[in-house]
Amino acid sequence: MISHGQFERQVGSARRILVVAPHPDDETLGCGGLIAAAVARGSRVHTLFVTDGGASHPASPAWPRPRLAMVREREAEEALRLLGAGEQPRTFLRLPDAAMPATGSEEWTSARDRIADLIREFDPDLVVLPWRRDPHSDHRDSHTLVCEGLRAAGCAAPCLEYAIWLEKFGAPEDFPRDGEVEVVSLSIATQRSKKIEALMAHSTQLGAIEAEAPGGFVLDQETQARLTGPVESYFRPCM
């Protein structure tokens, strides 16, 4: 098993980190502390936002999908700024939230190729992905899409995986299997306040538009508290 200190040193040695966020806000919830710590020590962090986030409030005429997607992108930009990554590179693929293209389709292949090009250019030495079996389909599909992009680019960078919804909604088969991963942790005590502030930038997901868009997604307090503690947990695939 890798120790806590060894893991922190491994993360600390990475100089070019690719962070994959299925939706705007996953970058903060899943690895906001890692982003803040990496930037503070001088590493480059490229954040890849896979979907447009436009499906969180589907029933509101006041917040049609194009408007919501545009605002969520702005929220992501502000969250990165608050994490200290305002000048760091980012890519918005803008795939449809909750309706990602089917594996092997023309749209999927185009997205994979864009990701492969990004990886070749950025040349990451660490990739941070959503957990492969996180209950949300966009998280699973983002993991598959980026892994295929890594293969197409011939990139063998080590990966970490973060889970957002596993603890809340995961079925037994969604959890790691024996020998599949190591559970590792990163202390983010000194970055925690930045992470909490960055999460507040995602106000559309925290109830700020509930009056105009009732019945939409609102990130519950329990999940906020669970994902903004002083430690971030990751799955490190076993080799």
Automatic annotation (TrEMBL):
InterPro entries cross-referenced by the UniProt entry: GlcNAc_PI_deacetylase-related, LmbE-like_dom_sf
Transmembrane annotation, as ranges: none
Matches recorded under Pfam families: PIG-L
GO molecular function: hydrolase activity, acting on carbon-nitrogen (but not peptide) bonds, in linear amides
Listed name of the protein: PIG-L family deacetylase
Record organism: Aquibium oceanicum
